[in-house]
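seq:
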Amino acid sequence: MSKIDFRDPAQNLRAFVKLLGDLDPDKVAYSWFGGHIFAYVGNRPAQMLCGVEGFGVLRCDPQPGDKYRILNREIAFYSNPFTGQYLDHWKNPLNGTDCEPQPIHNHYVAAELSPVMKMDFEGTLREFPFTPPWTILGEDVFQVFEVHTAYPSPMKPQDWPRESPGELIRISEIFQRTAKLADVEDASRTSTHYTGTWTRIGPWLPWMLMGQAEGHIMYRTFMKKLYSIDELPAQLRAATEKRYPEFFAAPQRSDWGTPNDSSWGTYMKENRPRR
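struct:
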Protein backbone atom coordinates (compact mmCIF):
# COMPACT_ATOMS: atom_id res chain seq x y z
CA MET A 1 0.00 0.00 0.00
CA SER A 2 1.41 3.36 -1.04
CA LYS A 3 1.21 6.59 0.94
CA ILE A 4 -0.05 8.15 -2.30
CA ASP A 5 -3.52 7.36 -3.60
CA PHE A 6 -2.84 7.24 -7.32
CA ARG A 7 -6.59 6.90 -7.94
CA ASP A 8 -6.99 10.46 -6.68
CA PRO A 9 -6.36 12.83 -9.65
CA ALA A 10 -4.72 15.59 -7.56
CA GLN A 11 -2.32 13.18 -5.83
CA ASN A 12 -1.59 11.39 -9.11
CA LEU A 13 -0.82 14.68 -10.87
CA ARG A 14 1.46 15.94 -8.09
CA ALA A 15 3.44 12.68 -8.17
CA PHE A 16 3.61 12.84 -11.97
CA VAL A 17 4.92 16.42 -11.99
CA LYS A 18 7.48 15.52 -9.33
CA LEU A 19 8.64 12.65 -11.55
CA LEU A 20 8.59 14.65 -14.76
CA GLY A 21 10.35 17.73 -13.41
CA ASP A 22 10.54 19.62 -10.12
CA LEU A 23 7.71 20.95 -7.97
CA ASP A 24 9.87 24.03 -7.26
CA PRO A 25 9.31 26.48 -10.15
CA ASP A 26 12.72 28.05 -9.54
CA LYS A 27 14.41 24.75 -10.40
CA VAL A 28 14.65 23.00 -13.76
CA ALA A 29 15.00 19.34 -14.72
CA TYR A 30 17.17 17.93 -17.51
CA SER A 31 16.26 14.66 -19.20
CA TRP A 32 18.33 12.77 -21.78
CA PHE A 33 17.03 10.41 -24.45
CA GLY A 34 18.77 8.32 -27.09
CA GLY A 35 18.02 5.45 -29.44
CA HIS A 36 17.16 4.63 -33.04
CA ILE A 37 14.53 5.31 -35.69
CA PHE A 38 12.98 2.55 -37.77
CA ALA A 39 10.94 2.64 -40.99
CA TYR A 40 7.85 0.52 -41.63
CA VAL A 41 6.75 0.16 -45.25
CA GLY A 42 4.09 -2.26 -46.45
CA ASN A 43 4.74 -5.87 -45.48
CA ARG A 44 8.51 -5.42 -45.24
CA PRO A 45 10.33 -5.89 -41.91
CA ALA A 46 11.29 -2.80 -39.97
CA GLN A 47 14.42 -1.07 -41.28
CA MET A 48 16.77 0.98 -39.10
CA LEU A 49 17.26 4.44 -40.60
CA CYS A 50 19.36 6.45 -38.14
CA GLY A 51 20.04 7.18 -34.51
CA VAL A 52 18.70 10.03 -32.41
CA GLU A 53 19.99 11.67 -29.24
CA GLY A 54 18.83 14.72 -27.36
CA PHE A 55 17.63 16.28 -24.15
CA GLY A 56 14.91 18.45 -22.71
CA VAL A 57 15.02 21.13 -20.04
CA LEU A 58 11.77 21.59 -18.18
CA ARG A 59 10.21 23.91 -15.61
CA CYS A 60 7.00 23.14 -13.67
CA ASP A 61 4.95 26.09 -12.43
CA PRO A 62 2.24 25.29 -9.81
CA GLN A 63 -1.11 27.05 -10.30
CA PRO A 64 -4.24 27.46 -8.17
CA GLY A 65 -6.60 24.48 -8.15
CA ASP A 66 -3.78 21.89 -8.01
CA LYS A 67 -2.86 22.68 -11.62
CA TYR A 68 0.66 22.80 -13.11
CA ARG A 69 2.07 24.55 -16.12
CA ILE A 70 4.76 22.52 -17.88
CA LEU A 71 7.32 24.67 -19.74
CA ASN A 72 9.74 22.67 -21.86
CA ARG A 73 12.52 23.17 -24.40
CA GLU A 74 13.79 20.20 -26.42
CA ILE A 75 16.64 19.47 -28.79
CA ALA A 76 17.94 16.35 -30.55
CA PHE A 77 20.39 15.38 -33.27
CA TYR A 78 20.16 12.53 -35.76
CA SER A 79 23.13 10.20 -36.03
CA ASN A 80 24.79 7.35 -37.85
CA PRO A 81 23.07 4.30 -36.30
CA PHE A 82 26.31 2.35 -36.04
CA THR A 83 28.91 4.96 -35.02
CA GLY A 84 26.68 7.42 -33.16
CA GLN A 85 28.27 10.34 -35.05
CA TYR A 86 25.80 13.17 -35.67
CA LEU A 87 24.75 13.57 -39.29
CA ASP A 88 25.06 16.61 -41.53
CA HIS A 89 24.09 14.60 -44.63
CA TRP A 90 22.09 11.40 -45.01
CA LYS A 91 21.30 9.24 -48.02
CA ASN A 92 17.77 7.96 -47.64
CA PRO A 93 17.94 4.17 -48.16
CA LEU A 94 14.23 4.06 -49.01
CA ASN A 95 14.36 6.33 -52.08
CA GLY A 96 18.06 7.09 -52.64
CA THR A 97 17.64 10.83 -52.03
CA ASP A 98 20.44 12.92 -50.51
CA CYS A 99 19.01 14.66 -47.43
CA GLU A 100 20.10 17.19 -44.84
CA PRO A 101 18.97 16.07 -41.36
CA GLN A 102 17.34 18.87 -39.40
CA PRO A 103 17.86 18.63 -35.61
CA ILE A 104 14.82 18.79 -33.38
CA HIS A 105 14.95 22.25 -31.81
CA ASN A 106 11.61 23.24 -30.38
CA HIS A 107 12.20 26.40 -28.39
CA TYR A 108 8.92 26.39 -26.52
CA VAL A 109 6.61 23.46 -25.76
CA ALA A 110 4.10 23.98 -22.95
CA ALA A 111 0.94 22.49 -21.49
CA GLU A 112 -1.24 22.97 -18.44
CA LEU A 113 -2.11 19.82 -16.50
CA SER A 114 -5.09 19.70 -14.18
CA PRO A 115 -6.68 17.04 -11.94
CA VAL A 116 -9.65 17.32 -14.32
CA MET A 117 -8.48 17.62 -17.90
CA LYS A 118 -10.56 19.10 -20.72
CA MET A 119 -9.99 18.07 -24.32
CA ASP A 120 -11.77 18.47 -27.62
CA PHE A 121 -12.82 15.15 -29.12
CA GLU A 122 -14.03 15.73 -32.69
CA GLY A 123 -15.73 18.98 -31.76
CA THR A 124 -17.06 17.88 -28.36
CA LEU A 125 -15.38 19.18 -25.20
CA ARG A 126 -15.02 16.35 -22.70
CA GLU A 127 -13.70 16.19 -19.16
CA PHE A 128 -11.73 13.31 -17.66
CA PRO A 129 -9.67 12.80 -14.48
CA PHE A 130 -5.87 12.86 -14.62
CA THR A 131 -5.16 9.27 -13.58
CA PRO A 132 -2.42 7.76 -15.80
CA PRO A 133 -1.44 4.33 -14.45
CA TRP A 134 1.22 3.65 -11.82
CA THR A 135 2.27 0.06 -11.07
CA ILE A 136 4.00 -0.78 -7.79
CA LEU A 137 6.30 -3.80 -7.62
CA GLY A 138 8.38 -4.09 -4.47
CA GLU A 139 10.51 -0.97 -4.03
CA ASP A 140 9.91 0.24 -7.57
CA VAL A 141 7.07 2.09 -9.23
CA PHE A 142 6.38 2.11 -12.97
CA GLN A 143 4.52 5.01 -14.58
CA VAL A 144 3.05 5.18 -18.09
CA PHE A 145 1.94 8.34 -19.88
CA GLU A 146 0.56 8.12 -23.42
CA VAL A 147 -0.45 10.72 -25.99
CA HIS A 148 -2.32 9.72 -29.14
CA THR A 149 -3.24 12.49 -31.56
CA ALA A 150 -4.45 13.06 -35.09
CA TYR A 151 -4.76 16.54 -36.57
CA PRO A 152 -4.67 18.37 -39.93
CA SER A 153 -1.15 18.75 -41.23
CA PRO A 154 0.18 22.33 -41.09
CA MET A 155 2.46 21.35 -43.97
CA LYS A 156 0.15 21.09 -46.98
CA PRO A 157 1.21 18.61 -49.66
CA GLN A 158 0.39 21.02 -52.49
CA ASP A 159 2.91 23.50 -51.04
CA TRP A 160 5.43 20.97 -49.68
CA PRO A 161 5.09 17.97 -52.03
CA ARG A 162 8.36 16.32 -50.98
CA GLU A 163 8.24 17.18 -47.28
CA SER A 164 4.58 16.88 -46.28
CA PRO A 165 3.32 13.48 -45.10
CA GLY A 166 -0.18 14.37 -46.34
CA GLU A 167 -3.31 16.12 -45.12
CA LEU A 168 -3.34 14.36 -41.73
CA ILE A 169 -0.67 13.83 -39.08
CA ARG A 170 -1.22 10.92 -36.70
CA ILE A 171 1.23 10.50 -33.80
CA SER A 172 1.44 8.20 -30.79
CA GLU A 173 3.95 8.77 -27.98
CA ILE A 174 4.44 6.42 -25.03
CA PHE A 175 6.58 7.41 -22.05
CA GLN A 176 7.43 4.68 -19.54
CA ARG A 177 9.26 5.75 -16.38
CA THR A 178 10.65 3.74 -13.46
CA ALA A 179 11.46 5.24 -10.05
CA LYS A 180 11.90 4.25 -6.43
CA LEU A 181 8.54 4.33 -4.66
CA ALA A 182 10.09 5.78 -1.50
CA ASP A 183 11.42 8.76 -3.50
CA VAL A 184 8.01 9.44 -5.03
CA GLU A 185 6.37 9.24 -1.58
CA ASP A 186 8.98 11.38 0.19
CA ALA A 187 7.23 14.70 0.86
CA SER A 188 10.54 16.43 1.58
CA ARG A 189 11.69 15.93 -2.03
CA THR A 190 10.47 18.20 -4.82
CA SER A 191 11.89 16.01 -7.60
CA THR A 192 12.19 12.27 -8.26
CA HIS A 193 14.83 10.60 -10.41
CA TYR A 194 13.72 8.16 -13.11
CA THR A 195 14.92 6.00 -15.97
CA GLY A 196 12.66 4.77 -18.74
CA THR A 197 11.80 4.56 -22.42
CA TRP A 198 10.18 6.80 -25.02
CA THR A 199 8.46 5.36 -28.08
CA ARG A 200 7.08 7.56 -30.84
CA ILE A 201 5.15 6.41 -33.91
CA GLY A 202 4.50 9.01 -36.57
CA PRO A 203 4.85 10.07 -40.21
CA TRP A 204 8.01 10.60 -42.20
CA LEU A 205 10.08 13.59 -41.11
CA PRO A 206 10.10 16.53 -43.56
CA TRP A 207 13.85 16.39 -44.15
CA MET A 208 13.61 12.71 -45.21
CA LEU A 209 11.87 13.90 -48.42
CA MET A 210 9.46 10.96 -48.48
CA GLY A 211 6.39 13.03 -49.31
CA GLN A 212 3.19 11.01 -49.10
CA ALA A 213 4.91 7.65 -49.58
CA GLU A 214 3.38 4.66 -47.83
CA GLY A 215 4.68 3.88 -44.36
CA HIS A 216 5.72 5.49 -41.10
CA ILE A 217 8.59 5.68 -38.62
CA MET A 218 9.09 4.66 -35.00
CA TYR A 219 11.48 6.14 -32.45
CA ARG A 220 12.73 3.59 -29.91
CA THR A 221 14.74 5.27 -27.16
CA PHE A 222 15.91 5.08 -23.60
CA MET A 223 15.53 8.14 -21.38
CA LYS A 224 16.84 9.31 -18.04
CA LYS A 225 16.23 12.25 -15.75
CA LEU A 226 19.66 13.70 -15.05
CA TYR A 227 21.02 14.58 -11.64
CA SER A 228 23.09 17.29 -13.31
CA ILE A 229 23.65 18.79 -16.75
CA ASP A 230 27.18 17.45 -16.43
CA GLU A 231 25.78 13.99 -17.21
CA LEU A 232 25.03 14.98 -20.82
CA PRO A 233 27.18 13.04 -23.31
CA ALA A 234 30.13 15.08 -24.58
CA GLN A 235 29.06 15.06 -28.25
CA LEU A 236 25.53 16.19 -27.39
CA ARG A 237 26.73 18.96 -25.13
CA ALA A 238 29.32 20.21 -27.64
CA ALA A 239 26.86 20.23 -30.56
CA THR A 240 24.28 22.13 -28.50
CA GLU A 241 26.84 24.67 -27.28
CA LYS A 242 27.94 25.29 -30.88
CA ARG A 243 24.54 25.48 -32.59
CA TYR A 244 21.80 26.06 -30.01
CA PRO A 245 23.30 27.33 -26.72
CA GLU A 246 19.98 28.82 -25.60
CA PHE A 247 18.57 25.29 -25.25
CA PHE A 248 20.40 24.72 -21.99
CA ALA A 249 17.88 27.02 -20.26
CA ALA A 250 14.20 26.23 -19.64
CA PRO A 251 11.46 28.70 -20.59
CA GLN A 252 10.58 31.23 -17.91
CA ARG A 253 7.22 31.37 -16.15
CA SER A 254 6.64 34.72 -17.91
CA ASP A 255 6.83 32.90 -21.27
CA TRP A 256 3.46 31.26 -20.65
CA GLY A 257 1.10 31.94 -23.55
CA THR A 258 3.80 31.78 -26.22
CA PRO A 259 2.63 29.61 -29.15
CA ASN A 260 4.02 26.07 -29.02
CA ASP A 261 6.72 25.05 -31.48
CA SER A 262 6.62 21.82 -33.47
CA SER A 263 9.01 20.07 -35.83
CA TRP A 264 6.67 20.91 -38.72
CA GLY A 265 6.38 24.59 -37.89
CA THR A 266 10.10 24.97 -37.21
CA TYR A 267 10.96 23.27 -40.51
CA MET A 268 8.63 25.55 -42.47
CA LYS A 269 10.15 28.66 -40.86
CA GLU A 270 13.70 27.66 -41.70
CA ASN A 271 13.35 25.97 -45.11
CA ARG A 272 11.80 26.34 -48.52
CA PRO A 273 10.05 23.48 -50.35
CA ARG A 274 12.37 21.19 -52.28
CA ARG A 275 11.43 20.76 -55.91
